[in-house]
Amino acid sequence: MRAVLILVAVLALGGAAYWMVADNAPVALPEQHNDDNSEQRPEQANPELATSDRHNVTPAPAPKDPTPDPKPEAGTSNEIEPDANPTIDVTLDLHVHNAVSRAPVAPFRWRFVRPGNILRGDNETGSAALALPRAVKGDLLIEADGMQPVEQKAFQTIGHNEPTQRLDVFLTPVPTGQGIKLMVKTLDRQPVPHVRVDAYKLRSDQNANEQTGWDLGQPLWSRGNSKPDGVYGLPPLPAGNYGIVLVATDPEGKQLPLSGYRQTFAVTGSNGFLEDVLLEPACALTIDLRDGQSRPYDPKVYGKTTISLNKAGETGIQRKWTANDDPSGTITEPNTVAGKGNVWLDQPIAPGNYLLEIFVDGDPRVSHSLQLRAEQQVETIYIR
User: Fold this and answer.
1) I need a surface site. Which of 172, 188, 230, 355 has the fewest CB within 10 A?
2) Is residue 44 included in any domain, yes or no?
3) Sequence-separated (6 or more) residues with CB below 8 Å from residue 144
4) Taking every pair of C-alpha atoms in the chain, what is the biggest distance, in angstroms?
């Protein structure tokens, strides 16, 4: 009987323990299936409900700040500052030289005048970068103390798409002494080292600038000169009016194909002249005259022979011709073949088309067209 009671007690205690465990066990939900056998959707977490007194909730992390800009280096700034040296539109690169020494002239002054405004400035270095307006015309003046000013009328500045223009200007020193000094150069401003200078005495009762034909006579003196720098000082001349002819030569005195220089001067005895002489390319013409037997033509045998050379469309131009005059050397006369054989112009002339005419004792013997070039040119002409 006791054994039965003990068994009943054990069973009672086991049943009580079972029901206590069963009350705390989770309840399994039946599995859900899609009718179309599609894949099982992932389980989604339910959102937390917002309440005013939530506790023990880990806050969501704050969004990260964007990456900060790097700090500027010392002495720099992210702000754009205006250019302290703005680009200047230089349109003219001006260089000013001494016409005698070719050295830079400093200081000098410049002025550009056009309708509506005047631009001007000073320079201390002999050159200046000028920002003149583009595509305009004006009068450009360059001057310096002790120099003759240079003015270029209606100077045209460069266009809108053209590069900077370089301009070289040569200022001639103002003469401070007496006499006549000639600075002789070619067009590219190279000195002419050998020249022949003829001086003529002009009438004193007439203005020197109004006298013409003076270079057809006999000179007061004629001299060859050599100067490596091309600067020739003429011998002192007494007060009066004078004409000067200058011809470029080689060391032996033969003409070079460069134009001659002619100018008149009124000398007072106390004034001075400093001339910048530029010689252009020209024709140094020699005529090789032959008779009917191809021998050198001799006017002493055939009679007085006159010669003329006129440019197309001109008449009556008088020129001096030089010929050999044995045994005395050479002889020069206007419009005349005065010696035997070759005869050449006393001064070179401009290139172009010319008509050569020769008369013997008044009878026409030659009428010949010549094309003259800027060179030493020899033409053979037969007089029959």
Assistant:
1) 188
2) no
3) 96, 105, 107, 108, 109, 171
4) 197
